[in-house]
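Researcher: Sequence of NIF3-like protein 1 follows. Predict its structure.
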Amino acid sequence: HSAAMLGWVGKAALTLGEMFPLELAEPWDNVGILVDSTFSDEEIGGTGVILFTNDLTEKVLEEAMSAGAKLVVTYHPRPFGSFKRLKSSDVTQRIVLRCARAGICVYSPHTCCDNAAGGVNDWLAQAFSSDPSSISPVKPIKIEGYPGAGSGRIVQLPEQISLRDAVEIVKKRCSLQHVRLAVSESAQGMSMEDIKIKSVAVQAGSGGSVLLGCTADLLVMGEMSHHDTLAAIASGSSVILTEHSNSERGFLPHMVEELKKRMTAAGYDKIQYIISQTDADPLSVV
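Model: Prediction complete. Tokens:
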């Protein structure tokens, strides 16, 4: 099937590819249509449901099936790795088999969404500054036609804020009661009010490989390894960790809004857009 053959499902996949261009993906990633729809154009029809999730788990798949979704947009790719056989004893292979049987198309924008202008990293960065000129990629991607694309974002704050303020900004952006904090070695012993932040670098998900070595006062990401965290605080940065998917999930409503706007403008106005209620980070603070 080419995406063009698949009615509104194909149109939605093409539109997601315009929002988050596939050529911006990291080379190791697995993005785009991961499970093709097995429906004909007639079976897809003019109406339907798209379910959005950060992770495609079996609970989320059951939610999608109950809602009658014909397309699941999962920020994290599932499947991610390759396999030589499809067996129901493996959870990822079982999800693929169940999607195929139900005719559900699965699409992942993952690092295209991280790296694209207007994607998840810009959303994280904009919590600290509403001025686009103050935000730039940590590692720009030099592909013509994609200004502002790249991995990570660094924000030069219009005026300095305290580390306490920064923590509250992250909690609010990611709808969290708790975050993990590592204070820069040079600031240890000071109160959070007295530690001043003039620059912030952000990377959704696992940010160590992108942000380590970045000279920002504060690094914000989902997760970072113990040794990378030690290296970061030794080099003068404080670190805020939200847990992996908590740094990403809050972007889903913005993805829905943009896709809906574009689909409606193209004449596809009978589509329902729902965000998973069962999708959540597996880790919680107890």
